[in-house]
Design brief:
Blueprint (H helix, E strand, L loop, with lengths): L11 H11 L1 H21 L1 E2 L12 H13 L4 E7 L6 H15 L4 E5 L1 H5 L9 H10 L1 H6 L8 E8 L4 H15 L7 E6 H35 L2 H24 L3 E2 L6 H25 L4 H28 L7 H21 L2 H6 L13 H19 L1 H18 L18 H11 L5 E9 L9 H14 L5 E5 L1 H11 L8 H14 L1 H7 L9 E8 L4 H18 L3 E6 L1 H10 L1 H24 L2 H25 L10 H17 L2 H8 L1 H30 L5 H29 L9
Parallel strand pairs: 1-6
Antiparallel strand pairs: 2-4, 2-5, 3-4, 7-9, 7-10, 8-9
Helix pairs in contact: 1-12, 2-10, 9-10, 9-28, 10-11, 10-13, 11-12, 11-13, 11-28, 12-13, 12-24, 12-26, 15-28, 15-29, 16-25, 18-19, 18-22, 19-20, 20-21, 24-25, 24-26, 25-26, 25-29, 26-28, 26-29, 27-28, 28-29
């Protein structure tokens, strides 16, 4: 038999819901059509972890970088690294020359420079490979370009690529690998540089969808099956979650969004949030079905009780994630925007699609599998709600003590800005880069730019070019610097090779060498990225060790100071792709502060609307802010850095952990008036503890799956988020009863 309509069932929202349930087949059919329409959009999703994705839009640094590209061309590229016993033979060098020629003809390649380009004027390969090897080892220009290492064991060809879309980038990368695969016996080649790092990041982002997300779905399905022992209780929540997920990803695909290592964590996040909401409602609906209600009546009663909490948790969770949209870091901002969209879709689905799924009753009302686990969880919730206030002092001291310890750890937080450190220590890209840099050849660059003032002479005079050479010599003493290259090195090499060397004064020789460089097409192609045609701007490429901002900062400061001293009549700036990525890391702390500044006031306003007392709203914030503080304190004490992923932990945690508190306090005012504070909290925790524990396990498992990643930011984000959820679950079961479950928590009259 059906129970009487719940209190409030005649309210307009429930009348609307009842009407919706009466047409549930139509609603389910429309939802199925929308999901089908979203599938082509899902297929269109691509991955893009190129540096441009992480540039800070609208900043002066980006404007300077784009001006540099316009004047000098690309600084994006890779080194084709070649070594082996067969290299320094005529067949080996013949292949190297052919490699440079074929690579230069590939679509997307802007420039290629290597030993054949430098020494092949009189024919290639040379008659005496050994003699060329010794000449190249001693040649200042060859070493400045990094074409050969000090011992002559490794040769590299520098390939600069034009900025392009991800598909073209991958196509070029594959073509370069294909060219290296043609190496003759005794010669081996590999790609090292910014493009190889991009490919490694693409792979790390893709593994979330390919490996960890399926594990999350499997874990959730097994957990639901073990908890409910009923197919319907597994299929219905997962169907709801799948619909929300596909609609979001389809919208992203149609909008042309490209996934990256930050946006890749969005599908698992939406999955666990949607599933947590679905489980909350499912458990409440099962309670009512166990009392004898049919599917429709149980669903209406569930929404009469839980609808307000679901609406508020949707709002708070959406705000928590959407707060990331204030970040100047593009991928973090995109995550905030699309997470907000996803939570919005989830909210709409929770009041349209999901009630229609819940109302699908199988069998006779009241016939449910044995519910021992749910009953145990209910008893645990009531027991903790009663025990925590009796040990109020101990609970308060425990939480206060850990808060003080966490606060002491917060100042120890550091920012990680070395992208290579995100990869495992044994990752091939990381190992190859370290090995090449150990040989004195750099793959990361800082661009030192000089612009002659309008009333000053140009930078193409013999004296200015000699000054560039002297500046490069001075900077090579920097420990973080592996090489420096300017037009001065090209001019010196041309002057040395001139048949007039030793017959003309140095200044006249340099002037003639510059004219010869500009008149010779191959030489002019080498000069163009270093000196503009009008001579008003010059570029010095500094090959640096791949490291974080803290290691590069001293070099930046000293290089800029040295350049200003050497060229007092020129404007000096530093630019480059590598610096843009390092500068992006400086905004991580502002991202953290900005997201908290948005989220905390909204959460306070939410609790104030629910509880109507400022004091109670502040109390409600405590169990939600405490996990965030605990996690950042843990990061400080254990040395886990802030990076592009862990900086999001605060907003994500606040957006998630507040849900349980809202479910506990959604009806606190009414129930407190009828039952008193202790019973209001104990009764509510008895009802909701099964959902708290199950959704807590789902959330911990969902984020814990990300912790399996070899990519450090994703793994750190997963571990820290799982820890925050666990801490928040304990706070909801212990601290909330202390704050609201005793006489001391009675609201003012």
């Amino acid at each position: 038999m059906n129970a009487p309509p719940p209190r409030g069932a005649r309210s307009r929202p429930l009348v609307t819901l009842a009407t919706l349930l009466a047409r549930r087949r139509l609603v389910l059919a429309v939802a199925a059509l929308l999901v089908l329409a979203a599938l082509p959009g899902v297929v269109r999703l691509e991955s893009d972890n190129s540096p441009a994705v992480f540039y800070l839009a609208g900043t002066p640094e980006l404007a300077r970088y784009r001006a540099m590209l316009a004047d000098f061309g690309s600084d994006e590229g890779v080194r084709l690294v070649v070594e082996g016993p067969g290299l320094w033979t005529r067949p080996g060098l013949a292949w190297l020359g052919e490699l440079e020629r074929r690579v230069a003809a590939l679509p997307g390649v802007e420039a290629v420079a290597g030993l054949a380009t430098r020494h092949g004027r009189d024919g290639w390969p040379p008659e005496d490979p050994g003699a060329l090897r010794e000449v190249a080892r001693a040649d200042r220009l060859d070493r400045a370009f990094g074409w050969i290492d000090e011992r002559g064991e490794v040769v590299t060809t520098l390939v600069l690529a034009r900025p392009s879309d991800p598909v073209a980038q991958r196509r070029l990368f594959a073509a370069l690998e294909g060219e290296l695969a043609t190496a003759p016996d005794g010669v081996r080649g590999q790609l090292i540089g910014s493009r190889s790092i991009d490919a490694a990041l693409d792979e790390s982002a893709a593994e979330i969808g390919r490996r960890y997300f399926p594990l999350l779905v499997l874990f959730a399905a097994l957990l639901l099956a073990a908890s409910f022992r009923e197919a319907r209780a597994v299929v219905l929540p997962l169907a709801f979650v799948g619909a929300c997920e596909l609609l979001l990803l389809g919208a992203m695909g149609y909008a042309g969004v490209r996934l990256n290592l930050i946006l890749a964590i969005l599908p698992p996040i939406v999955f666990v949030i949607a599933l947590a909401s679905a489980v909350h409602l499912l458990l409440a609906c099962r309670d009512r079905e166990a009392e004898g209600m049919d599917g429709v009546a149980a669903t209406l009663s569930t929404y009469a009780d839980k609808g307000r909490a679901v609406a508020w948790t949707t709002l708070s969770t959406g705000v928590g994630f959407a707060a990331l949209a204030v970040s100047p870091v593009g991928p973090v901002r995109a995550l905030g925007i699309w997470a907000g969209v996803g939570i919005g879709l989830l909210g709409v689905g929770a009041f349209t699609l999901y009630p229609c799924l819940l109302a699908l009753t199988h069998g006779r009302p009241g016939e449910l599998p044995e519910r021992r686990i749910e009953r145990l969880a209910q008893r645990l919730g009531r027991a903790l709600a009663g025990a925590a206030p009796r040990h109020r002092t101990a609970v308060v001291l425990l939480y206060a003590g850990t808060a003080v310890a966490a606060l002491a750890g917060v100042p120890r937080l550091r920012v990680e800005s070395n992208a290579l450190a995100f990869l495992p220590a044994d990752h091939p890209v990381r190992e190859r880069t370290a090995a090449l840099e150990a040989r004195g050849i750099g793959v990361s660059t800082v661009e030192l730019l000089l612009t002659a003032r309008p009333d000053a002479p140009g930078l193409d005079s013999p004296a200015a070019l000699a000054g560039l050479l002297a500046l490069a010599d001075a900077l090579r003493a920097e420990p973080a610097l592996l090489g420096a290259l300017s037009a001065g090195e090209l001019l010196e090499a041309a002057a040395r090779d001139s048949p007039l060397a030793g017959f003309l004064p140095d200044e006249a020789l340099r002037a003639g060498a510059l004219a010869a460089l500009r008149a010779d097409p191959p030489a002019a192609r080498l000069l163009a990225p270093l000196l503009t045609a009008d001579g008003r701007r010059a570029r010095m490429t500094l090959f640096v060790r791949t490291a974080g901002a803290e290691a590069i900062a001293p070099l930046r400061a000293r290089a800029e100071a040295a350049a200003r001293a050497a060229f007092p009549e020129a404007e000096v700036t530093l630019s480059g792709q590598y610096l843009l990525l390092l500068d992006m890391q400086r905004y991580l702390l502002s991202t953290l502060a900005g997201s908290l500044a948005v989220t905390v006031p909204v959460l306070f306003a939410t609790f104030l609307l629910l509880l109507r007392r400022v004091g109670l709203a502040l109390r409600a914030l405590a169990p939600n802010l405490w996990p965030v503080l605990a996690v950042f304190g843990l990061m400080g004490w254990t040395g886990v850095p802030l990076d592009v992923a862990t900086v999001m932990v605060a907003s994500v945690t606040l957006g998630l952990v507040v849900d349980d508190t809202i479910h506990t306090l959604a009806h606190y005012r009414e129930e407190h008036e009828r039952l008193g504070s202790a019973e209001a909290i104990a009764g509510r925790l008895e009802q909701t503890a099964p959902a708290y524990l199950l959704t807590g396990l789902i959330l911990i498992g969902g984020f814990g799956v990300c912790a399996l990643s070899d990519f450090a930011p994703t793994a750190r984000f997963g571990i820290l988020s799982a820890a925050a959820i666990a801490v928040a679950l304990a706070a909801d079961l212990l601290l909330v009863p202390v704050l609201f479950g005793g006489e001391a928590s009675r609201p003012e009259a």
